[in-house]
Amino acid sequence: MSRELAKASRVRISELTPGTDLYLGVHITGPGLVFDISCFGLDADEKLSDDRYFVFFNQPASPEQSIRLLGAQEGDTESFAVALGSVPDAVHKLALTATLDGDGQMSQVASGYVRIVAGGTEVGRYSFTGAEFSTERAVMLADVYRRGGEWRFAAVGQGFDGGLRALLENFGGEALDEAGPDAPDAPPAAAPAPVAVPTAQTVPTAPTVPPVSVPAPAPSYDATLVAVPAAVPAAAFPQQAGGAPVGVRISLTKYVEVPESPGWVKQNDNLVRVLLTKGQDVLALQGSMVAYQGKADFAHEGSGMLRKLVGNLTGQQLKLMRITGEGQVFLADEACDLHVVRLEGDTLCVGSDRVLAFEAGLEHEVRRIEGEGLPNGGFFTLQFSGHGVVVVKTNGVPVVLPVTPAPETYVDVQALVAWSRGSQVITTAPVRIRRSAYAGHAAESYSLQFRGAPGNFVIVQPFEV
User: Which one, out of 27, 136, 242, 421, has a CA that is 20 to 30 A from the CA of 378?
Assistant: First the structure.
């Protein structure tokens, strides 16, 4: 049975199949659109350090044949054969991309998917439509990457404004100029050898219904806000019946050196103290260190070519420093209110301008939030997932609103700080408010509607960015 994968989801290949020989099929169509589908073999810095691992129509295989372009197969627009066991150790990620050849934009895509086939049977599929994009001319479809000694699959679905040339250059490759009229003709590329692909009896060749985005299941805990006396040191939200904290925990109480999480202490509303230990690196906003004791090393944290590219395109770029050593570091940022949020296998969406620091073990990526009426059809946010701490900063003391199926919760997008992943952003609506006419303020803002299972929440600050 094929596993349906939602956008931004990640899964271990071993959870889908015990094998390492994969068939990756890509289907993407749109009226009058022509697509070039490629695979980039990227190194640990997410760069194309060896252009022989750029597999596309003019270079249909990597040197050792671990990545091969197969062409259109059984309803797939393009397909690849990947032998993970033969991929060189220097290649850490295989990035599947689609770019437009000619006029058009990705919002015109009628339907698309990336499917994973092993042993002649489809084991996973990520589906998408043009509604997820706007004026982009390329899209980063999916990644097959190494993490913790094993291969994983990520459904990316991230739009990109440039075409194939811009995508190649941003991965660190060199795009050669096309040959002039006097240049000799290049010999035609050899056609890839035919391979066995799944039959129509075992694997669907094309979607029969429009793809549906299935929201991630929400954590099962109550959304009741619990009033906690100031004397209680470890306030948490949300809580199960009986007071046991689970899921995402966030403290918004008054405190003096209250331990929020192992290694993280609130000195006051605007200052966090981090206990450094060996092997537990911390990533923090550059310039956020105000003092430290003991031995602490501060180093610029490179974001990698792909993450830097996505950050530049979406405005969700973090300028970080990596803190290592043994001691304690004090962090702050322009006297903003700081809140320590612990993720316990959960996912939290938060704008990059609201992040002060986080544990290096957390995964973070850019996510697009679409909405009718929003400028450019949507906005971008950072999505953190895993086990660890994120320090969120706000202007003023925020309110944590429970999100339930009914009634719906509406939030001004300019005051939005963060929300739990299980909270669905349903619609947007313009809110016209007469304001004093001074720089930095407009006459119209936008509200987002949140809905979700009990236990989800949204964090709102008393300040519009």
Answer: 27
